[in-house]
Write a structure and sequence with these properties.
The chain is of the alpha/beta class. Helices cover 31% and strands 7% of the residues. The protein starts with 16 loop residues before the first strand and ends with a helix.
Length: 349
């Protein structure tokens, strides 16, 4: 009697579907037909390869369920051989980070389920290879905020689920609030601050989020751009860049004005110094007929103290004449004194 072959794994083949869930598998089974289109490997203990692809022998898969497999680490290109995959379920796998190339090669993926993981932030470039993605499920992760660029990338995905995350509803949540309003998404609520806990983010406004001043400033810049564009017929800079350039302009003008003032002060000081020096060079007094010499007058001029000078008057010149100082040039030959012999002769007479 021949017996039925006993496969190592309990499998159920219905139209190419294989059920290998709950078997504590660390690696995908190798005894499965290569032409299967659906594979369920949930509730196992799979170890993801680091430098090679997963399920490289099953290129025809359309659906792959890897949910509840402990802590999966998605290395770059781990699914790159599954180009026909349409649905990938990675729910409840303890995923904390997704590499931007984790889903490389999944250009036909339609549905990506990432709910009930531990994602704290979205490195949303992982969506770039997913050109055909229609449904993205990010419910019940640890997301508190999402940046504007990530929201722009998710704009191309028709269905995005963000409920159950601990969203912080401050001014940084304003882009998310506007995005949810455009998408008319299901209720996405705040966890903090306490005053907004449980409230629908899409129903809030900028005042509720605490960024009223910033929004008014942004609207003012936007209005200024609308006014200047028709007049100048040029492309206006974004409001954020215009707001950042004015401090540089003010600094440049202040520097130019300061340099001009310093140059003017330097020129003025040089002119004042030149005029002050010219006052120190006074003409020498003329030679008086009384007998004063230029040398004597100039010496008496220089003897003034602390920069104050006095001009000698006629009385001073007369006093100098009374000292008996007579220059030789004023003694005539006929006025020479008599000799000793002449004085004796005069006495005897």
């Amino acid at each position: 009697m021949g017996g039925w072959p006993l496969p190592q794994e309990k499998t159920l083949r219905v139209m190419g579907w294989a059920d290998c869930s709950g078997k504590s598998l660390q690696h995908p089974p190798s005894s499965l037909p290569r032409n299967i289109t659906s594979l369920d490997l949930s509730f196992n203990s799979l170890v993801m390869p680091h430098h090679r692809t997963l399920l490289k022998h099953f290129p025809s898969l359309h659906s792959l369920n890897l949910s509840s497999n402990g802590k999966l680490t998605l290395s770059p290109g781990v699914f790159s051989n599954l180009g026909t995959l349409l649905l990938l379920d990675l729910s409840s796998c303890g995923i904390t980070y997704i590499h931007m190339d984790a889903f490389k090669g999944l250009g036909n993926l339609h549905t990506l389920l990432l709910r009930n993981n531990s994602l704290q932030e979205l490195d949303v470039p992982f969506l770039l290879p997913l050109k055909a993605l229609f449904h993205l499920d990010l419910q019940h992760n640890a997301l508190v905020s999402v940046d504007t660029w990530s929201l722009q990338l998710m704009e191309t995905v028709p269905q995005v689920r963000l409920e159950g995350n601990p969203w912080v509803c401050d001014c940084s949540a304003h882009p998310l609030q506007q995005w949810l309003q455009r998408r008319r998404a299901v209720q996405v609520t705040c966890l903090s601050p306490p005053g907004l806990r449980g409230q629908d983010i899409a129903a809030l406004d900028s005042q509720d989020l605490g960024c009223q001043i910033k929004q008014r400033f942004a609207r003012g810049l936007s209005t200024a751009q609308q006014i200047t564009v028709p007049e100048n017929n040029t492309t206006a800079l974004p409001a954020s860049k215009g707001g950042r350039s004015w401090p540089y302009l003010v600094g440049f003008l202040a520097t130019a004005i300061g340099l001009s003032i310093l140059i003017a002060l330097a020129a003025k000081c040089k002119l004042v110094h030149k005029n002050f020096a010219s006052y120190r060079h006074r003409p020498l007094p003329e030679i008086s007929s009384i007998g004063g010499s230029p040398m004597e007058d100039s010496s008496s001029w220089d003897r003034g103290s602390c920069g104050s000078h006095s001009i000698p008057d006629a009385a001073d010149l007369q006093a100098e004449d009374d000292d008996g100082f007579i220059e030789d040039n004023y003694i005539q030959p006929s006025e020479q004194l008599p000799t000793k012999g002449e004085r004796e002769l005069h006495r005897s007479m």
